[in-house]
Amino acid sequence: MPTLRDGDRLRVAEPPGMRSLLAASFVALLALPAAARTGVNVLVGADVSPMAQSTMPSGLWSRLVAQWVGENVIPASGSPTLDDCARAKALYMVNAPFELKPRLPGTALHVNDRVAGLTHVTVVNCLTKKTVYDQLISLESNPVSTANAGDLEPVAAVTWESSVKATLRAHPLVFATFSRVIKVAPPFVYIDGGTKGLAIGQTLRIYAGADGVPRNPAVVLTIVDVAGRQIEARYDATNPNNKVEVGDLVEPYAGVAPR
Description:
Blueprint: E1 3-6, E2 9-12, H1 18-30, E3 41-45, H2 58-69, E4 72-75, H3 82-88, E5 92-95, E6 98-100, E7 110-111, E8 114-125, E9 131-140, H4 152-169, E10 179-185, E11 188-192, E12 203-208, E13 214-227, E14 230-234, E15 249-252, E16 255-256
Parallel strand pairs: 3-4, 3-5, 9-16
Antiparallel strand pairs: 1-2, 5-8, 6-8, 7-8, 8-9, 10-11, 10-15, 11-14, 12-13, 12-15, 13-14
């Protein structure tokens, strides 16, 4: 696949027409009545490293990640790409590979009867190509069970399921459920589209106009009030680059984890 030079890194060249296809899909979804919008299409990759497959079956990890994402999950094979997003007509892609935590040579896999794993989760907006979530999440199993030792899946479910669910609940993923600006009163904006998982003080950003064309630069918002389906947020109205209009599209923005 062709690549383009971006600073000192190489990035995959955007497939012809991909952005227009995604924008058209997005605008078509926004035209649906609110009751018909059942969720966001999310392309999800949930690979398990070869070293970890003896303790975490791929099927179990894929199911746990899909439940965590909680939207219209479209399974991906391997790590999803922007090209995969275009084919799947997904608005976001999540990559959440599972691997065992590195350990010193000679150290046992089970420490204190538990297994330590991790997942480096990234969420990308397929329309803007921007990363909106980038977190390294540590996972620790329940005490290792030897029940049903001849059948990996039941043992793994006992070992991992409740602990993984509890850990991932502490790192909620919130997707833009077709949220848009309905009123602008600088420095405040009012947003309609649901408040699931959102709270005062959290960060949002305007990432595209009403036509689905990405907004560059994105406008960062801070939630100051949440009531029913409506959100009130504040932005820096003194910045001339912060263009805000009724109809703009908004998404939660967890930011990028420090390296």
